[in-house]
Amino acid sequence: MFSDADAAALYDLLNPWDPDSRPDGGFYFPLVMGAESVLDVGCGTGAMLHLARKRGHRGRLVGLDPDRAALDRARRRADIEWVEGTAAEAKSGAGFRLATMTGHAFQDLVTDHDVFASLSAIHGALRPGGRFVFDTRHPQARAWEGWTPSNPDDVVEVVDDTGRVLRYWHDVESVVGDVVTISGTVAQLDGTVLRVLSERLRFLNVMALSGFLAEAGFEIEAQFGGWDREPVTGSSREIITIARRG
Ligand SMILES: C[S@@+](CC[C@H](N)C(=O)[O-])C[C@H]1O[C@@H](n2cnc3c(N)ncnc32)[C@H](O)[C@@H]1O
Known about the structure:
This protein is of the alpha/beta class. The chain folds into 2 domains: 15-139 and 203-245, Rossmann fold; 141-202. It is built from 6 helices and 11 strands. The chain has helices spanning 4-14, 23-33, 47-54, 68-74, 112-125, 206-215; strands spanning 37-41, 60-65, 81-84, 96-101, 126-137, 156-159, 165-176, 179-188, 193-202, 218-224, 238-245. The strands form 2 sheets. Strands 3-2-1-4-5-11-10 form a 7-stranded mixed β-sheet, sandwiched between helices. The protein has a 4-stranded antiparallel β-sheet with strand order 6-7-8-9, covered by helices on one side. Helix 1 (4-14) packs across helix 4. The mean pLDDT is 97. Bound molecules: S-adenosylmethionine (SAM). S-adenosylmethionine binds next to loops.
């Protein structure tokens, strides 16, 4: 009733990539356009790289993601390399100038092993001096507390490509340590549930994140608490890191 391909299409409807109106897009896009080679880790449906090529990026663009249905959408643009795989499977020696992990994809790395193996592989895929830029939600903001159908802002209605009206909302299934398990329910307006998508997200704090980055060989060049490059403070909702391979 609601396929993986439908889920990937829904992702694009809910998260249109637009550097002109979305603050995260506005942060990442100039970095991507200014780097001659870019590895987008957890690229999903590939929207950021699509736009980079469309707006004239002439260098090497590679998107890496383990989700085949998302990559199938990404492959609609053939002038970009698309690789099916996890961050930990990023190829070493590729010599990228820039690696990105946008849209809080980093939070999909839930175990210490996942985080370390992924950071190490991304480090290996960069050339010396290359940068890894990524975002993760700051745990202090407890974003998951807003992921409930009782929050009107968290219940969205969209019309899909086939004209179906879909309602989508989240529920938090559990919070165990710094890992939050959520479900996303896709339903028709009459309440018929079409699909329940489940996801585990890790909320690393600044200190834990710094430890993992150092262990993988990264130096932190800059860290921000929001998309306007403001510092991380006690009220920040984001931890946005520019890490450099030394
Ligand atoms: C929230 S989406 C973000 C997609 C895209 N980066 C964006 O900004 O819209 C998270 C993506 O991370 C991918 N992902 C999950 N586990 C991953 C892993 N271990 N390595 C790389 N990507 C992963 C998912 O398949 C998904 O496409």
